[in-house]
Specification:
single chain; alpha+beta; Methylamine Dehydrogenase, Chain H; four-stranded antiparallel beta sheet; 8 helices; WD40/YVTN_repeat-like_dom_sf; WD40_PAC1; coiled coil
Length: 464
């Protein structure tokens, strides 16, 4: 009997131990479940916060900028109305033909193609930040030649550096080709053939990169067209055809996801394009000779009280403008929304070869309402959109190119805009270059800034 009682007690102890073990495991399991539930709740809260931020960003963008489709439709409707309100232009007269001959002489086509003027997309922001740290001596220089790209068989009219999708540089040339170069290796990556005339201007397309991460080059040409080239697929995939004569400067809008493109042409017009649909949204008429260069006003900023009110009363509607420089020696400012000509700046005595808006973030008085222009009259001038007056100018600069590149003496010059003083001079090789036609700053990771320029002889040089 005692043996059975002992066995029974042992079994009860075993059962109690098993129960205690199960209870302990259950407590640990419950604690773990509660911990997981708390973390799930935190994740859900984060997701909700992120979604709320996305909604707020979308709403803020809608307040700042109208929807791209709405903008495109509005511009199309206004353009249709403007063409209905004005009579058709008469046929070209002998007087107009004479004007074209004068323009051709200015351009330099025909007898001496090497004097074809440069398309200069002068980087206003980099210049100003560089000038503050540049040496005041014009003879000293800490820079040096890093690489030389050779491949073009004619002068290099335009270059652009990609800020997205890799360290690439593209170049457009009088040999009718577009080359793509790897800035890291210094080797050519692609060459595009398709234009039947000189390639006058090249730009990497921010629209295609931001929308679908395609690295795309946009080019303008003497053949009257604007073409788009996909680097990955190695092919042309889009053509904008609308200008009646050579197309020159092109520029993407900093707003609406860079969906708008403006272009200047020898047909005396500036055209506004919808890159997504390839449609012409509007044709700006006013210049009396060909339009060499164009620029969009910079993306608006609300940083600082001086910038919040800087657009007031300048332009109706969304506050964005296009400026253009022409062989008629003028700079004109156009309202992107109302499609009206706002201002005509007269002062240059020869072709305006480059125009550029001042970025807001530089802190320069007037912010994006200041335009800088360079001319074949050897001056660089600053213009205030608000007062419609010239601000100041620097004498002795041989065209806009020479402000940061050169013309015949192969020098690159840096100027202090406020004092109009020359800060620094970089000298190229006059015999090897035969003149510099275009310039671009590039910014590579951990390498600082590099200065790229294209020459009459067809070479591209990288300084750093």
């Amino acid at each position: 009997g005692e043996s059975n009682q002992l066995k029974s007690e042992i079994n009860q102890l075993r059962l109690q131990m098993k129960k205690n073990e199960q209870d302990a495991n259950s407590d640990e399991l419950n604690k773990l479940r509660k911990y997981i539930q708390n973390k799930d709740a935190e994740i859900d809260k984060l997701k909700q916060d992120i979604q709320l931020q996305k909604v707020q960003m979308v709403e803020k963008e809608k307040q700042l900028l109208p929807h791209p489709d709405k903008v495109a439709k509005t511009l199309e409707n206004k353009d249709l109305k403007s063409t209905q309100d004005y009579p058709q232009l008469p046929q070209i007269t002998n007087h107009q033909n004479n004007e074209e001959q004068k323009e051709s002489q200015k351009i330099g086509h025909g007898s001496s193609p090497s004097i074809h003027p440069p398309i200069s997309t002068f980087d206003f922001e980099i210049f100003c930040s560089s000038s503050s740290s540049s040496s005041s001596s014009s003879s000293s220089s800490s820079s040096g030649l890093l690489k030389t790209f050779s491949g073009h068989t004619s002068r290099v009219h335009s270059i652009d550096c990609s800020s997205n999708g890799g360290s690439f540089l593209c170049s457009g040339s009088g040999d009718k080709t577009i080359c793509v170069w790897d800035l890291g290796t210094g080797k050519p990556s692609k060459m595009f053939n398709g234009h039947t005339g000189y390639v006058n201007c090249v730009k990497f397309s921010p629209y295609h990169y931001h929308n679908n991460r395609r690295v795309v080059i946009c080019s303008s040409s003497e053949d009257k067209t604007i073409r788009f080239w996909d680097i990955k697929d190695n092919k042309e995939f889009q053509v904008l055809d609308g200008h009646n004569k050579s197309t020159y400067g092109i520029q993407f809008s900093p707003f609406n996801g860079s969906r708008l493109l403006c272009s200047g042409s020898s047909d005396q017009t500036i055209r506004l394009w919808d890159v997504q649909t390839s449609k012409i949204l509007h044709v700006f008429n006013g210049h009396t000779w060909g339009v060499w260069c164009v620029d969009f006003s910079p993306l608006q900023s609300n940083k600082g009280d001086h910038n919040k009110s800087s657009n007031a009363g300048v332009i109706g509607g969304n506050g964005y403008t296009i400026c253009s420089g022409s062989y008629d020696d003028t700079i004109r400012v156009w309202d992107v929304e109302t499609l009206k000509e706002l201002i005509v700046f007269s002062g240059h005595k020869d072709t305006v070869r480059s125009v550029k808006y001042s970025p807001y973030e530089l802190g320069i008085s007037g912010g994006g309402n200041t335009i800088l222009s360079g001319s074949a009259d050897k001056t660089v001038r600053l213009w205030d959109i608000r007062s419609k007056n010239k601000c100041t100018f620097s004498k002795g600069i041989h065209t806009m190119s020479e402000l940061l590149t050169i013309h015949q003496d192969s020098t690159i010059r840096f100027w202090d805009i406020r004092s109009s003083k020359e800060l620094h001079v970089m000298k190229g090789n006059e015999k090897e270059d035969d003149g510099i036609l275009c310039l671009q700053f590039s910014s590579l990771k951990n390498k600082g800034f590099e200065l790229c320029y294209g020459s009459v002889k067809g070479h591209i040089y990288i300084w750093g």
